[in-house]
Fold:
Amino acid sequence: AQKVTQAQTEISVVEKEDVTLDCVYETRDTTYYLFWYKQPPSGELVFLIRRNSFDEQNEISGRYSWNFQKSTSSFNFTITASQVVDSAVYFCALGPNNAGNMLTFGGGTRLMVKP
Amino acid sequence: DVKVTQSSRYLVKRTGEKVFLECVQDMDHENMFWYRQDPGLGLRLIYFSYDVKMKEKGDIPEGYSVSREKKERFSLILESASTNQTSMYLCASSLSGANPTNEKLFFGSGTQLSVL
Structure:
């Protein structure tokens, strides 16, 4: 069975602080995909990143960076110099490589960035 | 710009009513999904469809059915609404692929359904 755990249900930071959102997953698959989605107050989830399990390189996109550690089954997301517009609920998700199996979402982390 | 549109943002229904939630996408996507979102539980898949008139059960299909008569439209039906179906319902779509669960998902803004 697959499982995604986002242990931090809510995080509050002050603008310009760096913040890391944790994601730990469980799977028996050797090949899988990991995702992060952002859900702003408007409600519409927005895709941020997809990572294949074979690609352990970390990725940076502007103020966003992702740290994939296969050894600890973690795919953490860091926002550098946070801004108020980063306030949202962030979801980590695990996708198996086998067709017919479903994407598993974590419970989400609500990030509040205060001015 | 790509768009997934859900017909209602907020909906209030009574126990026992038949409820229709509509979703339309304009991206010519093959795959469409219905999720429900509950605090602390994340998103859970109710049903998905990878083609017109095709449907597959997700993790929590009980109490729901779906209809996909046209490629762009995917409807979620609550045959007899119950209070435990009060939730946020999210529709999503994705391009065709060998494994629909690994494609990037495009989401609608959600329908907050309250069953009284």
The mean pLDDT of chain A is 92.
